[in-house]
Amino acid sequence: MQMDPSQLAALSTVLRLGSFDAAARALSVTPSAISQRIKALEERIGTTLVHRGTPCSGTAAGRRIAKHAEDIGLLEAQLARELALEGGTAPVRLRVAVNADSLASWFIDAMAAVEGVLFDLVVDDQDHSADWLRRGEVSAAVTASTRPVTGFEAYPLGALEYVATASPAFMARWFAAGVTAETAARAPCLIFNAKDNLQQLWLERNVAAGLSPPAHFLPSTQAFIDAAAAGLGWGMNPLEMVRRDMQDGRLVPLIADTTLPVPLTWQVARVMAPALADLTRAVQTSARQHLAAT
To answer: What is the pTM of this model?
Structure first.
């Protein structure tokens, strides 16, 4: 099915910016023109593509079509580079799923190494980022799954090492007698969100299974570190991000030499792999510099 490029641009811009007015300003047209283009595309597809609200959001079909439009832009940019065509230097937009700890510790270096790309990042747990690939809502993702999603190429990156840390005062208060099943069941821990199972995995491997300690929920990588240092609880933090805190004594490990490695994989849509080759190389380079070998 051939789709009008101006209609595709209107759809992707509305979903990215959240309103018809903002999309109109970005595309230098009137809000009425944006509305007409969206309506025409919906009539052509035969279904609603945009939930009109504040902000506007895409239906499942709308999100898929918007990503398709962005993929077309990437492929056209690749062709322009290969043929040295004029006018092929405008930035393209790419939607990528990445976990918060990778974003905070090593992924930005990869982003900065690639020119001509405007990133639209979806931040989700590494165990769930592959779901975004399966739904066709992103073109690439950092995942914890080593098995490629159907239609995607997988590149092993190494492991993001986590360490269970807390402040010295917290350790003295809750673990003066050591980290045991009894003390770990009472000591508050930190959890990033409902998808975060790193604390549970560490407890199962190093203390006991079936423990359910009281928990704070803090969906922020930096706040996770700061909360541990402030004595709110213990949590799993990327070793690279807390190494200096541990050297300075601001944080200490709950149990020495009990890091939890989480292997990461870069997955990219097979059809988009050539267009994203520069980004893939940048991701692999940054991963080699920051992640542990597996």
So the answer is: 0.81
